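QA checklist item 7 of 12: single-chain prediction sanity check.
[x] sequence parsed
[x] length recorded as 107
[x] structure emitted
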Amino acid sequence: MGKLDRAQDRAMELIGEIGDGLRKRVPDKAVQWVETGAALGALRASSKVAGSFVRRNPYLVGAVVAGAGLLWLAARHQSRKRQVQEASLLRQQAVRRGDFEQDDYGV
């Protein structure tokens, strides 16, 4: 068993060295194309899974989309409310000129 394990380990080391050598010799564009192809393959597979999920559970997907829309609407409303409060606070501070620091010229 020891010789077989050592032979397998040595084979794995050689394969790793060959892979490293190929990566160094192959232009960066080729590696980029391979990575892009892998990403497109993953995107294609995930779109098939998502499509089958939507076909099987259309009401669930509709509810999720509606819930996401309501969350977005609530966040937008809260943001606008906060902007109005900040604007009114700035107007109040502008009326109270004594709150600001004055320089030597009184400005």
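[x] summary fact logged: The chain has a mean pLDDT of 79.
[ ] second reviewer sign-off
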